[in-house]
Predict the structure.
Amino acid sequence: MNFPFMKNEEIDSAANRLRFEALGTRAREVFIDLDAIVYDYLCERDALSVDDEAELPDEDGDEVLGKTFIKPGRILVNRRLKTSRDQGRYRFTLAHEIGHWILHRPLILAVIDQPSLFSELAGVESLTTLNRSVTSPRPPRHEIQANRFASGLLIDHDLLRDHFRARFGAGGGAGSSSSSATELPPRALARHLASQAIGPLPPLAGVFGVSVEAMAIALESRGFLPGETPLFGS
């Protein structure tokens, strides 16, 4: 499948729009009420069915995290994530599937009405999220887009900037990290920053209720690493 290119700004805007539509004044809370977005808003608005205790066997030796069925409109999340102690991983996976629902479902439905439009999507009935789709540095385009959406839905950029600066200052974390840490590859450094408790301040991943990997994706993609310019201003 080759989904069309989307600008990061488009994806971020879609995630923010959903968050504010669903939560109103609570949309700027640090720990986003994902259940309210999904069950109280989307399920009602779109007649969406969500099962987060689904038995999803591995495919090709890789863990299946979730599935989004375009018609009749159903999302499944692997029950192993719901029962895991790492609830951040469960939350990011559910938000990732919502990303497919918001970003990719309309494209696939459009193909039904206009078969010549995005012909490579013709016949697509569901999207499967494998573990490597989230953790790989080079996943398929539609998985990159769903990751970006999930990050935007769960992590408000301005709040992340404030919490990041409280822990690492305005220099992208270089001043508060060891020299060996700043020499790590970008994703490894992002994981390091996402998981560090600084004095009495808990790790960023825990504050926002996401996994270390999800927070690492946010830090890397939004320009919070040393020597990078934040994508959304200072």
